[in-house]
Design goal:
The chain is an alpha/beta fold. It contains 13 helices and 13 strands. Helices cover about 35% and strands about 15% of the residues. It has two domains: about 130 residues, Rossmann fold (3-Layer(aba) Sandwich); about 180 residues, Rossmann fold (3-Layer(aba) Sandwich), CATH 3.40.50.720. The structure holds (2R)-2,3-dihydroxypropanoic acid.
């Protein structure tokens, strides 16, 4: 930890377990944890580098981590590691080497469910923004270049009634399908390893192959986890399969898309546009994307509502506390 670290607990004692939070958490969550633990917080609230994370794992009983922490196998196999548990503040856990955690006997928990609605809301936001050229319109207006209404300016694509293809029909995929089908009258196609009978019955969602989904959908939304199977699932070849009038939306993880291939496809108009909330090398964004008008770029805001972040924090706190009390954790990944 840097000199910026702060202790949240009011009564620091050597008998209470020690928890390190790698970022600031909502104040109520930090305070709840501090009732039973000595909590050390990275007050700088900037991503911790590898050395700082190694030191943290050596000096606490449980680590409260986030998507900005890369926790690799060597860090987990470190003989000097003290932490026996990582309470991840987030549902995605691709930043933690889960196989190594399993091998090393380190428990990992995540926060499923509580961010479903917020993330599905943001996916819908991106669909609407890229289809209706909202970012482009706002930039034009702010630049003082708006000449007033005209019948032919800034024409976008109709979302209502269009076909949405969802890749990854877990909780968030299904919540997006509900919004799209019931709110916007969209036809929903999906591709997933297992079928989603509930979405088929209630929303008329149809399972299709990945190829059919890419070739048919007006909007392709990525809602799958990041893993070896989904790495660069959307590459140059997949982008060629998409309709030239189609849009790609990603609220899952950046590395599901080959960002360089996407930048090129958008530049030459191989697809109509994209809405992105996540990136391959966050916080860096491929330079080819930054100058394009036909892509909406948001800074990983999917779960970013105050209520959702507090619910995520409370869930992570409950998992950490359970571990420290020797009880089973409610949301184990490992
Ligand atoms: C999640 O919960 O996975 C969010 O993307 C933040 O990590």
């Amino acid at each position: 930890m840097s000199n910026d670290s702060i202790t949240v607990s009011t009564t620091v004692s050597i008998t209470r377990p020690r928890v390190i939070l790698t970022r600031r958490w909502p104040a109520a969550c930090e305070a709840a944890l501090a009732q039973t633990c000595d909590v050390l917080v990275n007050a700088a609230d900037e991503p911790m580098d590898r050395d700082a994370l190694v030191r943290a794992l050596r000096s606490c009983d449980a680590l409260g981590a986030t998507v900005t922490d890369r926790i690799d196998g060597d860090m987990l196999a470190d003989p000097a590691r003290r932490a026996g548990m990582i309470g991840n503040f987030g549902v995605g856990f691709n930043h933690i080497d889960i196989d190594a955690a399993r091998r090393c006997g380190v428990l990992v928990s995540n926060t499923p469910g509580v961010l479903t609605d917020a993330t599905a809301d943001l996916a819908m936001t991106l669909i609407l923004m890229c289809a209706r050229r909202a970012g482009e319109g706002e930039r034009l207006l702010r630049a003082g270049a708006w000449q007033g209404w005209s019948p032919t300016s800034l024409l976008g694509t109709q979302v209502s009634g269009a076909t949405l293809g969802i890749i990854g029909m877990g909780r968030i995929g299904e919540a997006l399908a509900r919004r799209a089908a019931l709110g916007f009258g969209m036809r929903v196609l999906y591709h997933n390893r297992s079928r989603a009978p509930q979405a088929e019955l209630a929303l008329g969602a149809t399972w299709v192959s990945l190829k059919t989904l890419l070739e048919t959908a007006d909007f392709v939304s990525l809602n799958c986890p990041s893993n070896a199977e989904t790495h660069h699932l959307i590459d140059a070849e997949a982008l060629v399969r998409m309709r030239p009038s189609a849009f790609l939306v990603n609220t899952a993880r950046g590395d599901v898309v080959d960002e360089a291939a996407l930048a090129e496809a958008l530049r030459v108009g191989r697809i109509a546009g994209a809405g992105l909330d996540v990136y391959e090398h966050e916080p860096e964004v491929h330079s080819g994307l930054l100058s394009l008008e036909n892509v909406v770029l948001l800074p990983h805001q999917g779960s970013g509502t105050a209520a959702t972040r507090e619910a995520m924090g409370n869930m992570a706190v409950a998992n950490i506390r359970a571990f420290l009390d020797g009880r089973p954790i409610e949301n184990p990944v490992v």
